[in-house]
Amino acid sequence: MRQNPSDEPASSLFEKIKVKKEKLIQEKKLKETQLLPAITQNEIEYTIPNTWCWARLANICEFITDGTHYTPKYTEHGRIFLSSQNVKPFSFMPNNHKFVSEEAYQGYIKNRKPEFEDILLTRVGAGIGEAAVIDQELEFAIYVSLGLLRPFKEFIDPYYLVIWLNSPIGTKHSQKNTYGKGVSQGNLNLGLIRGFVVSVPPLAEQKRIVEKCDRLMSLCDTLEAKLKQGRDSSEKLMEVAAKHVLTA
Predict the structure, then answer these.
(1) CA 190: distance to chain centroid?
(2) Which helix (H) or strand (E) holds 12?
(3) Which of these, 90, 87, 160, lies nearest to 124 by C-alpha position?
(4) How many CB atoms lie within 10 A of CB 237?
(5) Per-residue pLDDT averaged across 169-189, rounded?
(6) N or C, where is the chain less crowded by C-beta within 10 Å?
(7) Of 146, 109, 110, which is closest to residue 131 (Cα–Cα)?
(8) What are the tens digits of pLDDT across the range 143-167?
(9) Across the chain, what does the average pLDDT equal?
(10) Model-level pTM?
(11) CA 78, 80, 86: angle at the middle one, nearest 5?
């Protein structure tokens, strides 16, 4: 994608994130976290434009956590409870959910309450490393099989971050940091997620990338629908032809 020299560079975003994070820590709205190691040359996998920067994932997020580690006791009604089955690449799918009691819910959301435009990342199960933005105003709790990421949304577009997480580069990071693979379905280590090395464009360019991906995905959906329509028509013609042959 073509760069715009008038875009505020990503390095400026990092300075603003640093100031915002320090303010939140002082106000006790955010816990002080352990410093992550500097990014090494070996971790840089491709060339980025001059206005972009590399960042550890945790350094561009308010927090990265996961859902409750306690085995939930489900109820027939109550509060919505989601797990990894409710997330597919780019798709937040809360409709097929379970319920927990109000008391359990209040415990589960302590320090980990999902909010609109946070990111959910699958940590356990068949589709480890799949990410989606919470694109609905909905109250729910999550299980340990989901990671919860809250980027600094003033400076980092969550939809851009989800594009990166679902990209071949992002899924490679997830696969590389999955423990227990082969023994079981494995689990994506939360501490290592925080250390992912992400390429960050200027905010204006993040939004242009998101808009372009939305257009391309819409085009793919249209083409897929046309292909399905073509297959359905072919199948109907085959049915008619087979019926004609068998009844002739």
Answers:
(1) 14
(2) helix 10-26
(3) 87
(4) 10
(5) 76
(6) C
(7) 146
(8) 999 999 999 999 999 999 999 999 9
(9) 89
(10) 0.87
(11) 155
User: What does the chain come to in residues?
Assistant: 248
Q: Are 88 and 226 in contact (CB under 8 A)?
A: no
Residue 244 has pLDDT above 70, yes or no: no
Topology adopted by domain 10-201? Adenine-n6-DNA-methyltransferase TaqI; Chain A, domain 2 (3.90.220)
Q: Answer for the pair 199, 46: CB distance below 8 angstroms, yes or no.
A: yes
**Contact residues for 153 (Cβ-Cβ < 8 A; gap 6+):** 117
Residues 222, 72 contacting (CB under 8 angstroms): no
User: Token pair of 94, please?
Assistant: 């809360």
> Beta strand pairing status for 91-92 and 87-88?
antiparallel
Calpha distance 182→175 (Å, rounded): 12
Query: Amino acid identity, residue 121?
Result: L
Structural domain boundaries of the chain? 10-201, 203-248
Phi–psi pair at 92, nearest 5 degrees: -90, 120
pLDDT in tens, 42-61: 999 899 999 999 999 999 99
Specify whether the CB–CB gap between 209 and 160 falls below 8 A: yes
CB atoms within 10 A of CB 83: 18
Encoding tokens for residue 113? 């309450």
- 14: nearest Cα among 129, 146, 119, 156: 156
- Give the Cα separation of 84 and 192 in Å (integer): 19
The owner of tokens 């560079």 is: 9
Query: Can you tell me the distance from the alpha carbon of 150 to that of 161, in angstroms, rounded to the nearest whole number?
Result: 10
What letter would DSSP give residue 46? S
DSSP code for 134: -
